[in-house]
Amino acid sequence: MTHMKFISWNVNGLRAIVKKDFLTTFNTLDADFFCIQETKMQPNQLTLDLPGYQQFFNSADRKGYSGTAIFTKHTPQNVTYDIGTDEFDHEGRVITLEYPDFYLVTCYTPNSGTGLKRLDFRMGWEQVFQDYLDSLNASKPVILCGDLNVAHEEIDIRNPKTNHHNAGFTNEEREQFSQLLSRGYTDTFRYFNPDATDRYSWWSYRFNARDRNAGWRIDYFVTSNRLQDHLVEADIKDQIFGSDHCPILLTTKDLHV
């Protein structure tokens, strides 16, 4: 039985976190696939020495903003960037790797912003991105990971009552995540931990939020339902520091690369 480990982490600036303990953490986790969001860099701004890994970057047109990366031990059959709609394809938000048994998609979902000024953009993104996932899923199962910028249910946020109109916990965003799952996908952390409380992946830098564990669960591994028999473990690595997010983990079995 072959197990594979997937890690996803919004690092809030790859160049910044590399100056901390990123490489130690990276080597300790020893993942087959290490997916990163919010790289905040162009590929020529950093050279990472990661023996045994292939590196794929998708950077925003705007420097120091957004961006994604995947580091993998397994050579993909195909690599694509973005989601094929010009309105949404300038911020480096998606990378897709194709393997014999699945697609791996890392995503940094647009934040609706202060005062929800980008909520309309976000809602447009949701429709196009979910259709994109379905187009992949029609061919082979999907493993989606990343900072999806939504706490799905009240159990996924420390202070639900005071956040209902804040970006990441609006009814509109939460309904979009419900809609995604209804299309045939599994929130893997909830699959293994349906009732777990106080498990978060992001904490504001303000008000000592992480010390108080006043967090949000907005980072996910979401998989096609038909991969459920291949799921071994999903976890949140909340003892790992270096960003305002922590890494999340998915372990699978018997998938061919």
TrEMBL record:
Keywords: Exonuclease, Hydrolase, Magnesium, Manganese, Metal-binding, Nuclease. Mg(2+) binds at residues 10, 38, 147, 149, 244-245. The record marks 219 as: Important for catalytic activity. The keyword Membrane does not apply. GO terms for biological process: base-excision repair. Transmembrane segments: none annotated. PROSITE patterns: AP_NUCLEASE_F1_1, AP_NUCLEASE_F1_3, AP_NUCLEASE_F1_4. One of its GO terms (molecular function) is DNA binding. Belongs to the DNA repair enzymes AP/ExoA family. This is Exonuclease III. It comes from Secundilactobacillus odoratitofui DSM 19909 = JCM 15043. The lineage of its organism: Bacteria, Bacillati, Bacillota, Bacilli, Lactobacillales.
